[in-house]
Amino acid sequence: MIGRAAQLGADLVVLPELVTSGYVFTDADEARSHAESATGPTVSLFAELSAEHQIMIIGGWCERADADRLYNSAAVLDRGELLANYRKTHLWGREKLIFTPGDEAPPVINTRLGSIGVLVCYDLEFPELVGEVARRGAQLIVAPSNWPAGVPVPAGERPAEVIKAQAAAAVNRIAIAVADRCGLERDVPWIGGSLICGTDGYLLAGPAAGEPALLWADVDLAAAQDKGLGPHNDAFADRRPELYR
Amino acid sequence: MIGRAAQLGADLVVLPELVTSGYVFTDADEARSHAESATGPTVSLFAELSAEHQIMIIGGWCERADADRLYNSAAVLDRGELLANYRKTHLWGREKLIFTPGDEAPPVINTRLGSIGVLVCYDLEFPELVGEVARRGAQLIVAPSNWPAGVPVPAGERPAEVIKAQAAAAVNRIAIAVADRCGLERDVPWIGGSLICGTDGYLLAGPAAGEPALLWADVDLAAAQDKGLGPHNDAFADRRPELYR
Questions:
Q1: Closest CA to A202 of B10, B152, B1
Q2: B217 touches chain A (CB under 8 A)
Q3: Which domain holds residue A144?
Q4: By three-state DSSP, how is residue B221 classified?
Q5: Residue A228 sits at the chain B interface (C-beta within 8 Å)
Q6: Residue numbers in B near A171 (CB within 8 A)
Q7: Cα(A62)–Cα(A18) distance, integer angstroms
Q8: Which of A48, A202, B167, B230 qualifies as a FRET site for A226, CA 20 to 30 Å off?
Q9: Is the CB of B232 inside 8 Å of chain A's CB atoms?
Q10: H or E element: which one contains A22?
C-alpha cells in the first residue's frame, strides 16, 4: 500500500493507530508481547520504506518503554530518519488498562513538506488540544486512529468522529488526515472512516466506506497559514481566552 | 410562528440573531436607529408572547446600552420574565464597526426546563467557549444566529457552520439549537441552516433548507448530564488541561 501511494505521488503516507500490532489486546501481557522499541521491526520498517520511496510516513505502533510501561505511539519518519515520536495522551476504553498515557503535548514538526502536528485517535476529540497544536503552527494534523463503531450512526449520516474531525479542521483553518482501521478485529467492528480534510472543513478524500482503502489528495498547506475569515475576522485573533476559564 | 410552535407543544422557542431589527446595517447610525432597551418593543414582545403561551423564548435583538454602545444581544424570557440577557462576545464581519463586544462570559441559566447556555452565532465557532459553557453545566446551548452564505458549500455537503455545531454538541455531550436567518437581506444571502442537535452530535431536526421553517424536536436534556463514553471514558474527566497551554 505504501509503495502504491508513493507511485501515485504521495509525499506523506499516514497509517492507522497500532498498525502492525493490532488493537484488541486481551490484556497488558498480550500487548507487551507485541510491543517494540524504536529500533524494533515496525519503526525500522517505516524507516526503510520511507527511505526507499523518499517519502514521509506517520504510523501508529505499540511502544515498550521499559518493563512496565507501554505507550500507544505514533512515529514520524522522513526518508529513513525518525523525526519524532508521540505517545497518545488521551487513552480510550481498555487502553487505560494497558498503556501509560503520554505526558508530553503532541509534537509540531517543521518538515520539508510543512508544519505537521501528530495526534492519535481520541486525542482529536479534545478541541482544546487540537487548537493548541494548531496555534503552535501545525498546518496539517495527522491522526493515526482506530475508531470503534460505537453509537449507531443514523441512516445517511456520517459518523460523529468524522464530523468532529471536519469541525476541528474548520475552526482552526488547518488540514487533517486520519487513517482509520477497518473491518472486524476480534469482537470489535471498526468504522473504517479514513479521511483527508481541507482547511474549510470539507473533505478532500473519504470518509472511507469501511473497506481497506488508499485515499489520496493534494492538500494546500499554505492555506493553513492564513487564519483570516474575510476582511474583519481571524480565527485565532478573534479568540478571547480571558472568557474561556 | 411562536404561536404555532406553542400549539405544537414547544416549551422553548429559539429565534434568530437580531430578529426584529434585521442584520445588514449600512452603518452604526442605522443600527442605532433600530436599537432598543430591554424595555423596548422587541424584548417586550418576547415577554408578552412567552407569558401568553407559557413558554420560554430566546431571541436576538439590537440593544442600545447608552448613546455610544450597541450590543448584539440575546434575551432569555420565561413566561413573561426576563431571565437573562447575553451580549455577543465574538463579533463577525462588519459587526465590529457597529457593536461593542460583550465582556461577560455567556450565561448558563437554571430554568424549569433544565440548564441552558446562550451564545450568538459566531461564538459557537470557538470550541473553548462552548466547552467552558458546557462545563458550567449547560445541558442545551441555544444560539440565535445569522449565518451568511460565504465559502461555497461542495455539492451534497452540509455547510461547515452546521458541522461545527454538530461537533460542538458531540464533544461536550450537550444539545444545541441554532435558529438561523434565511433568504436574502440587502446583498447578503443567508444559509438558513437552523438545526436542533442531540448529545451524540446527530441532528434531531434540520438543517433547514434555506426557507422559512419551524423546526421542532424533543430534546433529552437528561442525556447531557451524563458525560460518560462507555465504561472507561468521560468527555470531561478525560480532558488534560495541563496540555492545553
A1: B152
A2: no
A3: 2-243
A4: helix
A5: no
A6: 125-127, 164
A7: 6
A8: B167
A9: yes
A10: none
